[in-house]
Design goal:
With about 80 residues, the protein is mostly helical. It has one domain (about 1-80). About 85% of the residues lie in helices and about 0% in strands. The chain has helices spanning about 1-20, 30-50, 55-80. α1 crosses α2 (about 30-50), α1 (about 1-20) crosses α3 and α2 packs across α3 (about 55-80). The longest helix is centred in the C-terminal third of the chain and has 25 residues, at about 55-80.
Length: about 80
């Protein structure tokens, strides 16, 4: 249960960071948090497959999730514009 809560907090932080980095493409605070959670899932699957691991621990998890959220936010915003 604690892992789930930490995972949600990491995803929320990642969504917040992604919303700041990608200005104008966000979905509001709640939408960015959801994108952050989904981005952390994406990063959690893709980065190990690519062999990417440069930061250990919680800080690394936040960075990976933020990168995943930024990628997901960019992709969603491209489809949103089309």
């Amino acid at each position: 249960m604690v892992d789930l809560i930490i995972w949600l907090i990491v995803g929320a932080a990642a969504g917040w960071i992604a919303g700041i980095v990608i200005k104008g493409a966000g979905f509001g605070p709640l939408g960015n948090i959801i994108v952050g959670i989904l981005g952390s899932i994406v990063a959690g699957f893709i980065f190990p497959l690519l062999g990417i691991a440069f930061l250990p621990g919680l800080i690394g998890d936040v960075v990976y999730a933020a990168i995943g959220a930024i990628i997901l936010l960019l992709v969603v915003s491209w489809f949103k514009r089309a």
